[in-house]
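step 3/5: co-fold with NAP
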Amino acid sequence: MGYDKLTIPSEGQKVTFSNGKINVPDNPILLYIEGDGIGYDIMTASLRIWDAAVARAYHGKRKIAWMEVYCGEKAAQVYDGNYMPEETFDALREFGVGIKGPLTTPVGGGFRSLNVTLRQVLDLYQCVRPVRWFRGVPSPLKNPQDVDVVIFRENTEDIYAGIEFEAGTPENEKLAKFLREEMGVTGFFEGAGLGIKPVSAFGSKRLVRAAIQYAIDHNRPSVTLVHKGNIQKFTEGAFVKWGYEVASEEFAERTISWDDVAKNHGGKVPAGKILIQDTIADITFQHMLLRPRDHSILATTNLNGDYLSDALAAEVGGVGIAPGANIGDEVALFEATHGTAPKYTNLNKVNPGSLLFSGVMMLEYLGWQEAADLINAAYEKTLDQKIVTYDFARQMEGATEVGTSQFADVIISNL
Ligand code: NAP
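step 4/5: write C-alpha coordinates
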Protein backbone atom coordinates (compact mmCIF):
# COMPACT_ATOMS: atom_id res chain seq x y z
CA MET A 1 0.00 0.00 0.00
CA GLY A 2 1.29 3.50 -0.81
CA TYR A 3 1.37 6.13 1.94
CA ASP A 4 1.38 9.88 1.69
CA LYS A 5 3.29 10.92 4.82
CA LEU A 6 4.69 7.61 6.05
CA THR A 7 8.02 6.06 5.15
CA ILE A 8 8.22 2.28 5.06
CA PRO A 9 11.69 1.21 6.26
CA SER A 10 13.48 -0.35 3.30
CA GLU A 11 15.42 -2.87 5.38
CA GLY A 12 12.40 -4.35 7.20
CA GLN A 13 9.80 -7.06 6.51
CA LYS A 14 6.16 -7.38 7.50
CA VAL A 15 4.95 -9.44 10.42
CA THR A 16 2.21 -11.75 9.11
CA PHE A 17 -0.55 -13.88 10.63
CA SER A 18 -1.77 -17.27 9.45
CA ASN A 19 -4.34 -19.53 11.17
CA GLY A 20 -4.23 -17.35 14.26
CA LYS A 21 -0.44 -17.64 14.56
CA ILE A 22 2.03 -14.81 14.17
CA ASN A 23 5.03 -15.14 11.81
CA VAL A 24 7.90 -12.85 12.72
CA PRO A 25 10.85 -12.16 10.40
CA ASP A 26 14.26 -11.32 11.88
CA ASN A 27 13.86 -7.68 10.88
CA PRO A 28 10.16 -6.97 11.53
CA ILE A 29 8.65 -3.60 10.69
CA LEU A 30 7.06 -2.39 13.92
CA LEU A 31 5.05 0.83 14.16
CA TYR A 32 5.28 3.45 16.86
CA ILE A 33 3.09 6.41 17.74
CA GLU A 34 5.13 8.80 19.84
CA GLY A 35 2.22 10.17 21.87
CA ASP A 36 1.46 13.61 23.29
CA GLY A 37 2.81 15.36 26.40
CA ILE A 38 5.50 13.15 27.92
CA GLY A 39 5.28 10.86 24.88
CA TYR A 40 8.46 12.19 23.29
CA ASP A 41 10.56 11.65 26.43
CA ILE A 42 9.38 8.14 27.20
CA MET A 43 9.31 6.93 23.58
CA THR A 44 12.84 8.20 22.85
CA ALA A 45 14.18 6.51 25.99
CA SER A 46 12.28 3.25 25.41
CA LEU A 47 13.24 2.89 21.75
CA ARG A 48 16.89 3.04 22.79
CA ILE A 49 16.39 0.34 25.43
CA TRP A 50 14.41 -2.03 23.17
CA ASP A 51 16.99 -1.73 20.40
CA ALA A 52 19.88 -2.26 22.78
CA ALA A 53 18.21 -5.34 24.31
CA VAL A 54 17.52 -6.88 20.90
CA ALA A 55 21.11 -6.20 19.76
CA ARG A 56 22.43 -7.72 22.97
CA ALA A 57 20.17 -10.78 22.86
CA TYR A 58 20.65 -11.67 19.18
CA HIS A 59 24.05 -10.14 18.29
CA GLY A 60 22.76 -8.42 15.17
CA LYS A 61 20.85 -11.43 13.80
CA ARG A 62 17.58 -9.72 14.69
CA LYS A 63 16.78 -6.03 14.48
CA ILE A 64 13.55 -4.04 14.61
CA ALA A 65 12.83 -1.76 11.63
CA TRP A 66 10.86 1.06 13.29
CA MET A 67 8.27 2.98 11.33
CA GLU A 68 6.73 6.11 12.81
CA VAL A 69 2.99 6.62 12.33
CA TYR A 70 0.97 9.49 13.70
CA CYS A 71 -1.97 10.07 15.98
CA GLY A 72 -2.90 12.94 18.28
CA GLU A 73 -1.15 16.30 18.34
CA LYS A 74 1.81 15.23 16.19
CA ALA A 75 -0.63 13.89 13.59
CA ALA A 76 -2.42 17.25 13.59
CA GLN A 77 0.90 18.91 12.69
CA VAL A 78 1.77 16.42 9.96
CA TYR A 79 -1.75 16.05 8.52
CA ASP A 80 -2.95 19.61 8.71
CA GLY A 81 -5.19 19.43 11.76
CA ASN A 82 -6.24 15.78 11.44
CA TYR A 83 -5.71 14.01 14.78
CA MET A 84 -6.57 10.55 13.47
CA PRO A 85 -5.34 10.13 9.90
CA GLU A 86 -6.72 7.19 7.98
CA GLU A 87 -3.14 6.24 7.03
CA THR A 88 -2.45 5.33 10.64
CA PHE A 89 -5.28 2.80 10.67
CA ASP A 90 -4.18 1.49 7.26
CA ALA A 91 -0.59 1.06 8.43
CA LEU A 92 -1.66 -0.73 11.62
CA ARG A 93 -3.81 -3.08 9.57
CA GLU A 94 -1.00 -3.68 7.09
CA PHE A 95 1.92 -4.12 9.50
CA GLY A 96 -0.01 -5.66 12.41
CA VAL A 97 2.09 -4.73 15.43
CA GLY A 98 2.75 -1.34 16.99
CA ILE A 99 3.29 0.57 20.21
CA LYS A 100 1.96 3.93 21.29
CA GLY A 101 2.63 6.61 23.83
CA PRO A 102 -0.26 8.38 25.61
CA LEU A 103 -2.67 10.57 23.68
CA THR A 104 -4.55 13.63 24.90
CA THR A 105 -8.31 13.36 25.15
CA PRO A 106 -9.70 16.89 25.37
CA VAL A 107 -12.57 17.04 27.89
CA GLY A 108 -15.74 17.95 26.00
CA GLY A 109 -13.66 18.31 22.82
CA GLY A 110 -14.86 17.92 19.27
CA PHE A 111 -13.64 14.34 18.79
CA ARG A 112 -14.07 11.06 20.62
CA SER A 113 -11.26 9.58 22.68
CA LEU A 114 -8.44 8.64 20.31
CA ASN A 115 -7.63 5.62 22.43
CA VAL A 116 -11.17 4.27 22.45
CA THR A 117 -11.50 4.95 18.72
CA LEU A 118 -8.30 3.05 17.91
CA ARG A 119 -9.57 0.06 19.88
CA GLN A 120 -12.99 0.11 18.26
CA VAL A 121 -11.99 0.81 14.66
CA LEU A 122 -9.29 -1.88 14.69
CA ASP A 123 -11.48 -4.26 16.74
CA LEU A 124 -8.80 -4.67 19.40
CA TYR A 125 -11.11 -6.62 21.66
CA GLN A 126 -8.65 -7.71 24.32
CA CYS A 127 -7.15 -5.18 26.70
CA VAL A 128 -4.31 -7.13 28.28
CA ARG A 129 -2.63 -5.86 31.43
CA PRO A 130 -0.02 -7.98 33.21
CA VAL A 131 0.34 -6.90 36.83
CA ARG A 132 3.38 -8.15 38.67
CA TRP A 133 5.85 -6.71 41.10
CA PHE A 134 9.47 -5.94 40.26
CA ARG A 135 11.98 -6.23 43.06
CA GLY A 136 12.66 -2.83 44.59
CA VAL A 137 9.55 -1.05 43.33
CA PRO A 138 7.80 0.86 46.15
CA SER A 139 4.44 -0.76 46.98
CA PRO A 140 1.75 -0.25 49.63
CA LEU A 141 1.41 -4.03 50.12
CA LYS A 142 3.28 -6.13 52.69
CA ASN A 143 3.88 -8.91 50.16
CA PRO A 144 3.70 -7.36 46.71
CA GLN A 145 5.56 -10.36 45.29
CA ASP A 146 2.30 -12.33 45.68
CA VAL A 147 0.63 -10.22 42.99
CA ASP A 148 1.11 -11.82 39.58
CA VAL A 149 -2.01 -11.64 37.42
CA VAL A 150 -2.81 -10.87 33.83
CA ILE A 151 -6.06 -9.00 33.27
CA PHE A 152 -7.99 -9.70 30.07
CA ARG A 153 -10.55 -6.93 29.81
CA GLU A 154 -13.19 -7.01 27.09
CA ASN A 155 -12.61 -3.87 25.07
CA THR A 156 -15.52 -3.30 22.70
CA GLU A 157 -18.82 -3.82 24.54
CA ASP A 158 -20.48 -2.97 27.84
CA ILE A 159 -21.19 0.68 28.55
CA TYR A 160 -18.14 1.59 26.42
CA ALA A 161 -20.25 0.91 23.34
CA GLY A 162 -21.37 4.50 23.92
CA ILE A 163 -25.13 3.87 23.61
CA GLU A 164 -26.37 6.68 25.84
CA PHE A 165 -29.28 9.07 25.62
CA GLU A 166 -29.11 12.39 27.42
CA ALA A 167 -31.98 13.36 29.71
CA GLY A 168 -34.40 15.76 28.08
CA THR A 169 -33.60 14.83 24.46
CA PRO A 170 -36.29 13.46 22.12
CA GLU A 171 -34.30 10.20 21.76
CA ASN A 172 -34.21 9.75 25.50
CA GLU A 173 -37.93 10.41 25.82
CA LYS A 174 -38.70 8.01 23.02
CA LEU A 175 -36.66 5.25 24.66
CA ALA A 176 -38.17 5.98 28.11
CA LYS A 177 -41.67 5.78 26.64
CA PHE A 178 -40.85 2.51 24.89
CA LEU A 179 -39.43 1.02 28.08
CA ARG A 180 -42.40 2.10 30.19
CA GLU A 181 -45.22 1.43 27.79
CA GLU A 182 -44.01 -1.54 25.79
CA MET A 183 -41.56 -3.28 28.09
CA GLY A 184 -43.30 -2.64 31.40
CA VAL A 185 -40.18 -1.12 32.94
CA THR A 186 -40.96 1.15 35.88
CA GLY A 187 -37.73 1.30 37.82
CA PHE A 188 -36.39 4.72 36.87
CA PHE A 189 -37.27 8.35 37.62
CA GLU A 190 -38.73 10.80 35.15
CA GLY A 191 -35.98 12.55 33.19
CA ALA A 192 -33.26 9.99 33.89
CA GLY A 193 -30.28 9.75 31.54
CA LEU A 194 -30.35 6.33 29.91
CA GLY A 195 -27.55 4.02 28.83
CA ILE A 196 -27.53 0.59 27.26
CA LYS A 197 -25.08 -2.11 28.23
CA PRO A 198 -24.64 -4.67 25.46
CA VAL A 199 -22.76 -7.86 26.34
CA SER A 200 -22.86 -10.55 23.67
CA ALA A 201 -21.99 -14.23 23.48
CA PHE A 202 -19.63 -13.44 20.58
CA GLY A 203 -17.82 -10.67 22.48
CA SER A 204 -17.62 -12.57 25.76
CA LYS A 205 -16.53 -15.84 24.21
CA ARG A 206 -13.72 -14.44 22.10
CA LEU A 207 -12.32 -12.61 25.13
CA VAL A 208 -12.47 -15.64 27.42
CA ARG A 209 -11.07 -17.82 24.62
CA ALA A 210 -8.03 -15.52 24.39
CA ALA A 211 -7.60 -15.59 28.18
CA ILE A 212 -7.69 -19.40 28.32
CA GLN A 213 -5.31 -19.69 25.36
CA TYR A 214 -2.93 -17.33 27.15
CA ALA A 215 -3.16 -19.48 30.29
CA ILE A 216 -2.27 -22.56 28.21
CA ASP A 217 0.58 -20.85 26.36
CA HIS A 218 2.07 -19.36 29.54
CA ASN A 219 1.49 -22.24 31.91
CA ARG A 220 -0.88 -20.36 34.18
CA PRO A 221 -2.93 -22.31 36.75
CA SER A 222 -6.31 -20.57 36.56
CA VAL A 223 -8.66 -18.18 34.79
CA THR A 224 -11.13 -16.23 36.93
CA LEU A 225 -14.27 -14.81 35.30
CA VAL A 226 -14.94 -11.52 37.11
CA HIS A 227 -18.50 -10.19 37.03
CA LYS A 228 -21.49 -8.52 38.69
CA GLY A 229 -23.84 -11.28 37.61
CA ASN A 230 -25.56 -11.29 40.98
CA ILE A 231 -27.14 -7.94 40.00
CA GLN A 232 -26.91 -7.71 36.20
CA LYS A 233 -27.98 -11.21 35.30
CA PHE A 234 -28.34 -11.02 31.54
CA THR A 235 -25.17 -9.04 30.83
CA GLU A 236 -22.59 -9.74 33.55
CA GLY A 237 -24.23 -13.04 34.45
CA ALA A 238 -24.32 -14.08 30.82
CA PHE A 239 -20.62 -13.22 30.47
CA VAL A 240 -19.85 -15.86 33.09
CA LYS A 241 -22.19 -18.43 31.55
CA TRP A 242 -20.62 -17.94 28.13
CA GLY A 243 -17.14 -18.03 29.66
CA TYR A 244 -17.77 -21.45 31.19
CA GLU A 245 -19.25 -22.59 27.88
CA VAL A 246 -16.07 -21.69 25.97
CA ALA A 247 -14.01 -23.56 28.52
CA SER A 248 -16.10 -26.73 28.38
CA GLU A 249 -16.83 -26.70 24.64
CA GLU A 250 -13.43 -25.66 23.29
CA PHE A 251 -10.88 -26.47 26.00
CA ALA A 252 -12.39 -29.52 27.73
CA GLU A 253 -9.06 -31.36 27.73
CA ARG A 254 -7.15 -28.53 29.41
CA THR A 255 -9.65 -26.90 31.78
CA ILE A 256 -11.80 -27.82 34.74
CA SER A 257 -14.47 -25.78 36.50
CA TRP A 258 -14.50 -25.11 40.22
CA ASP A 259 -17.77 -27.06 40.53
CA ASP A 260 -16.18 -30.13 38.99
CA VAL A 261 -13.14 -29.79 41.27
CA ALA A 262 -15.34 -29.54 44.36
CA LYS A 263 -17.73 -32.36 43.41
CA ASN A 264 -15.39 -34.85 41.80
CA HIS A 265 -11.83 -34.14 42.87
CA GLY A 266 -12.03 -33.43 46.59
CA GLY A 267 -11.34 -29.73 46.10
CA LYS A 268 -7.95 -30.34 44.43
CA VAL A 269 -7.31 -29.30 40.85
CA PRO A 270 -6.04 -32.34 38.87
CA ALA A 271 -2.51 -32.01 37.46
CA GLY A 272 -2.32 -30.45 34.01
CA LYS A 273 -5.73 -28.75 34.27
CA ILE A 274 -6.39 -25.03 34.30
CA LEU A 275 -9.01 -24.06 36.88
CA ILE A 276 -11.90 -21.96 35.57
CA GLN A 277 -13.56 -20.10 38.42
CA ASP A 278 -15.65 -16.98 38.84
CA THR A 279 -15.87 -14.20 41.41
CA ILE A 280 -18.06 -11.17 41.93
CA ALA A 281 -16.20 -8.00 40.96
CA ASP A 282 -16.28 -6.28 44.36
CA ILE A 283 -14.94 -9.39 46.12
CA THR A 284 -12.19 -9.61 43.53
CA PHE A 285 -10.86 -6.24 44.71
CA GLN A 286 -10.69 -7.66 48.24
CA HIS A 287 -9.01 -10.85 47.07
CA MET A 288 -6.39 -8.89 45.21
CA LEU A 289 -5.46 -7.11 48.43
CA LEU A 290 -5.85 -9.93 50.93
CA ARG A 291 -4.94 -13.10 48.99
CA PRO A 292 -3.74 -12.19 45.52
CA ARG A 293 -2.25 -15.65 45.00
CA ASP A 294 -5.77 -17.02 44.43
CA HIS A 295 -5.81 -15.48 40.98
CA SER A 296 -3.60 -15.80 37.94
CA ILE A 297 -5.66 -14.59 34.96
CA LEU A 298 -8.70 -12.32 35.36
CA ALA A 299 -11.16 -12.21 32.45
CA THR A 300 -13.56 -9.30 32.82
CA THR A 301 -16.20 -7.22 31.14
CA ASN A 302 -15.15 -3.75 30.07
CA LEU A 303 -16.00 -1.47 33.02
CA ASN A 304 -14.99 -3.91 35.75
CA GLY A 305 -11.70 -4.42 33.94
CA ASP A 306 -11.13 -0.69 33.74
CA TYR A 307 -11.39 -0.27 37.52
CA LEU A 308 -9.45 -3.42 38.30
CA SER A 309 -6.56 -2.56 35.97
CA ASP A 310 -5.71 0.70 37.69
CA ALA A 311 -6.40 -0.55 41.21
CA LEU A 312 -4.12 -3.54 40.76
CA ALA A 313 -1.43 -1.46 39.07
CA ALA A 314 -1.39 0.70 42.21
CA GLU A 315 -0.57 -2.38 44.30
CA VAL A 316 2.73 -2.91 42.49
CA GLY A 317 4.03 0.56 41.69
CA GLY A 318 1.29 2.57 40.01
CA VAL A 319 0.59 3.85 36.54
CA GLY A 320 4.20 4.96 36.04
CA ILE A 321 5.19 1.35 35.33
CA ALA A 322 1.97 -0.53 34.45
CA PRO A 323 2.15 -1.92 30.90
CA GLY A 324 -0.73 -2.75 28.58
CA ALA A 325 -1.79 -3.90 25.14
CA ASN A 326 -4.89 -3.84 22.99
CA ILE A 327 -5.02 -6.96 20.89
CA GLY A 328 -7.24 -8.15 18.06
CA ASP A 329 -6.95 -11.16 15.81
CA GLU A 330 -4.47 -9.57 13.38
CA VAL A 331 -3.49 -6.25 14.95
CA ALA A 332 -1.81 -5.69 18.30
CA LEU A 333 -1.20 -2.23 19.71
CA PHE A 334 0.89 -2.02 22.88
CA GLU A 335 0.55 1.13 24.96
CA ALA A 336 1.59 3.09 28.00
CA THR A 337 -1.36 2.91 30.37
CA HIS A 338 -0.98 6.36 31.94
CA GLY A 339 -1.92 9.63 30.28
CA THR A 340 0.12 12.45 28.80
CA ALA A 341 1.01 14.03 32.19
CA PRO A 342 1.13 17.45 30.46
CA LYS A 343 2.84 19.27 33.32
CA TYR A 344 5.97 17.16 32.73
CA THR A 345 6.10 17.60 28.93
CA ASN A 346 9.70 17.70 27.64
CA LEU A 347 11.14 17.97 31.17
CA ASN A 348 13.04 14.68 30.85
CA LYS A 349 11.57 13.73 34.20
CA VAL A 350 8.98 10.96 34.13
CA ASN A 351 9.25 7.20 34.48
CA PRO A 352 9.39 5.44 31.10
CA GLY A 353 8.45 2.12 32.79
CA SER A 354 4.86 1.81 31.55
CA LEU A 355 5.85 2.21 27.90
CA LEU A 356 9.07 0.25 28.39
CA PHE A 357 7.23 -2.78 29.80
CA SER A 358 4.53 -2.50 27.15
CA GLY A 359 7.44 -2.95 24.75
CA VAL A 360 8.57 -5.96 26.77
CA MET A 361 5.07 -7.40 26.26
CA MET A 362 5.47 -6.68 22.56
CA LEU A 363 8.80 -8.54 22.44
CA GLU A 364 7.13 -11.49 24.18
CA TYR A 365 4.24 -11.34 21.71
CA LEU A 366 6.83 -11.60 18.90
CA GLY A 367 8.38 -14.57 20.68
CA TRP A 368 11.58 -12.63 21.42
CA GLN A 369 11.65 -13.72 25.05
CA GLU A 370 15.43 -13.41 25.42
CA ALA A 371 15.34 -9.66 24.73
CA ALA A 372 12.34 -9.25 27.05
CA ASP A 373 14.11 -11.12 29.85
CA LEU A 374 17.20 -8.93 29.48
CA ILE A 375 15.14 -5.79 30.05
CA ASN A 376 13.32 -7.25 33.06
CA ALA A 377 16.63 -8.23 34.66
CA ALA A 378 18.32 -4.89 33.86
CA TYR A 379 15.35 -3.03 35.35
CA GLU A 380 15.59 -4.94 38.63
CA LYS A 381 19.34 -4.38 38.72
CA THR A 382 18.81 -0.64 38.24
CA LEU A 383 16.31 -0.60 41.09
CA ASP A 384 18.73 -2.55 43.27
CA GLN A 385 21.16 0.33 42.63
CA LYS A 386 18.34 2.68 43.77
CA ILE A 387 18.61 4.69 40.55
CA VAL A 388 15.08 5.86 39.78
CA THR A 389 12.94 8.65 38.33
CA TYR A 390 11.21 11.23 40.55
CA ASP A 391 8.05 9.20 41.17
CA PHE A 392 9.89 6.35 42.84
CA ALA A 393 12.56 8.61 44.38
CA ARG A 394 9.91 10.26 46.53
CA GLN A 395 8.94 6.89 47.98
CA MET A 396 12.42 5.38 48.47
CA GLU A 397 15.03 6.06 51.14
CA GLY A 398 18.49 6.88 49.79
CA ALA A 399 17.50 6.84 46.10
CA THR A 400 19.40 8.63 43.36
CA GLU A 401 16.91 10.54 41.22
CA VAL A 402 17.68 10.73 37.50
CA GLY A 403 15.84 11.99 34.42
CA THR A 404 14.09 9.81 31.86
CA SER A 405 17.01 9.60 29.45
CA GLN A 406 19.63 9.01 32.16
CA PHE A 407 17.41 6.24 33.54
CA ALA A 408 17.46 4.67 30.08
CA ASP A 409 21.28 4.99 29.96
CA VAL A 410 21.59 3.08 33.24
CA ILE A 411 19.22 0.33 32.13
CA ILE A 412 21.17 -0.07 28.90
CA SER A 413 24.43 -0.31 30.78
CA ASN A 414 22.82 -2.97 33.02
CA LEU A 415 21.57 -5.11 30.12
P1 NAP B 1 -1.96 11.15 33.60
O1 NAP B 1 -1.46 11.82 32.39
O2 NAP B 1 -1.79 9.68 33.68
O3 NAP B 1 -1.21 11.82 34.83
C1 NAP B 1 -1.66 11.73 36.17
C2 NAP B 1 -0.48 11.66 37.10
O4 NAP B 1 0.06 10.35 37.04
C3 NAP B 1 0.69 12.57 36.76
O5 NAP B 1 0.48 13.88 37.18
C4 NAP B 1 1.80 11.86 37.51
O6 NAP B 1 1.65 12.00 38.92
C5 NAP B 1 1.46 10.40 37.24
N1 NAP B 1 2.13 9.90 36.03
C6 NAP B 1 1.60 9.70 34.78
N2 NAP B 1 2.52 9.21 33.94
C7 NAP B 1 3.65 9.07 34.67
C8 NAP B 1 4.95 8.60 34.37
N3 NAP B 1 5.29 8.15 33.14
N4 NAP B 1 5.88 8.62 35.35
C9 NAP B 1 5.57 9.03 36.58
N5 NAP B 1 4.36 9.49 36.93
C10 NAP B 1 3.41 9.50 35.99
O7 NAP B 1 -3.51 11.45 33.84
P2 NAP B 1 -4.35 12.78 33.60
O8 NAP B 1 -3.56 13.96 34.08
O9 NAP B 1 -5.65 12.48 34.18
O10 NAP B 1 -4.54 12.87 32.02
C11 NAP B 1 -3.79 13.73 31.17
C12 NAP B 1 -4.23 13.48 29.72
O11 NAP B 1 -3.92 12.16 29.33
C13 NAP B 1 -5.72 13.64 29.48
O12 NAP B 1 -5.88 14.30 28.24
C14 NAP B 1 -6.23 12.23 29.39
O13 NAP B 1 -7.39 12.13 28.62
C15 NAP B 1 -5.06 11.54 28.72
N6 NAP B 1 -5.01 10.08 28.98
C16 NAP B 1 -4.55 9.31 27.97
C17 NAP B 1 -4.41 7.94 28.16
C18 NAP B 1 -3.88 7.10 27.03
O14 NAP B 1 -3.41 7.64 26.04
N7 NAP B 1 -3.92 5.77 27.12
C19 NAP B 1 -4.73 7.37 29.41
C20 NAP B 1 -5.16 8.19 30.43
C21 NAP B 1 -5.28 9.56 30.21
P3 NAP B 1 2.27 13.14 39.86
O15 NAP B 1 1.50 14.38 39.56
O16 NAP B 1 1.97 12.62 41.23
O17 NAP B 1 3.71 13.28 39.59
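step 5/5: annotate
The mean pLDDT is 94.
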